[in-house]
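Input.
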Amino acid sequence: MELQERLNDVRARIAVAERSGGRASGSVELVAVSKTFDADQIRPAIEAGQRVFGENRVQESQGKWPQLKAETDGIVLHLIGPLQSNKAAEAVALFDVIETVDREKIARALAEEIKQQGKAPRLFVQVNTGLEPQKAGIAPDDTAAFVTLCREELGLVIEGLMCIPPAEENPGPHFALLAKLAKACNVEKLSMGMSRDYETAVAFGATSVRVGSAIFGAR
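Output.
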């Protein structure tokens, strides 16, 4: 199956999941995760009309996305991998959305860069719904207080929450928890669901899903 066919298949599955869940058509945004793929491998997705992409690493993204953005209008780039505070300046300069605000140090670094650069990427707080020690993210019980700190003390606009459920667990309860936290924090966006579980995520209210291997193939 060619990339365009895989992309169309994912789009069709999202549309079915929207209908099944009583969601409005087009209410779920597809973030095509292009990490580890080079510009020539990404271009066919752009040619097929995809405009929203996700990357894990700032440095890798700097090597391909400035050129791709210059070639095509309307590209929206999401940072979906961990962000180190020493990369905050580069992240604010390159990314349109940063989904991995996961601790106070990062939030402060972003606030400083946003002020200096006069550029404000949309921000999501990453929540560690499974409390996995090896995984980044705010603990569920600390999420509301952290969102309040970001907004009230640092002046950041937090528009959503993001999670990556434990790989070996049923993702449904994690998606339900994130939706509940979003309501409590008064945020509208939910970034949840990947290649293996994006249809489930749509059923639980995802506003964006992050799909890589189902579009680009195995890494």
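Strands lie at 29-33, 52-55, 76-79, 97-101, 122-127, 158-163, 189-191, 208-211.
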